[in-house]
């Protein structure tokens, strides 16, 4: 899935019609899925977390969301449990399933002062720093939508998109899981790309960067896509090898 934002998947299409089964979803499961995809908001309507886009559930959910066994837990819950118990509430015996972010809003704000990346990059940019932000759209550990928000917040903080874009570029990686893995092309040298930008002035989006997917055994490339500057995405030209980067161009729709 190259253009994640265009996907409007509704879990209700998988509703069970003849009782619970492994090939369908009950009403409770549909509600749970919609909760995962949707924003987490405070009572005043402000967003706590943007939710996840659909895609890569078969690989991402067993590890990060649901756990791989019935009654198990995913890594999201395990990491979040430690944060709630030992940082926000200070109670190792706290029942995390009963955690109310409204009640512990002060503790969450305090934790955010240490954990949240600041969008105020004026000092970094002012020293000549260059930044590439990249995020896999099938990342079920951290939502790519959070990186979109951060990218937009940087523009607001530093004085506008043009100021941000002079020193920062953002790339979504379709089909890529957390840092790597997934069905998408997850192998790309962003260190070299940012070095060329910092040392030679060539923006990554003009370097014709190609991301590849390697065979897990032979390490030979099995598919490739151009790395597209957000908000563009690699769109098939309509002809050519679907596994070749040359068959795609970066488009906005």
Give the key terms.
253 residues, alpha+beta, two-stranded antiparallel ribbon, two-stranded parallel ribbon, 8 helices, globular
Q: Which geometry do the CA atoms define? A: globular
Beta-strand proportion: 5-15%
* DSSP helix fraction: 25-40%
Please list the strands of the largest sheet in the order they lie side by side.
Answer: 1-2
Please give the radius of gyration in angstroms: 20 Å
Largest sheet: 2 strands, antiparallel
Would you count the extended β strands for me?
8
How far apart the termini lie comes to 13 Å
Average pLDDT level: 95
Helix/strand layout:
Layout: H1 27-37, E1 40-41, E2 47-49, H2 57-65, H3 75-88, H4 105-115, H5 122-126, E3 131-136, H6 144-158, H7 161-165, E4 168-173, H8 190-200, E5 210-214, E6 221-226, E7 233-236, E8 248-251
Parallel strand pairs: 3-4
Antiparallel strand pairs: 1-2, 5-6, 7-8
Question: Quick gist of this model?
Answer:
This protein is α+β, with helices and mostly antiparallel strands. Helix content is 32%, strand content 14%.
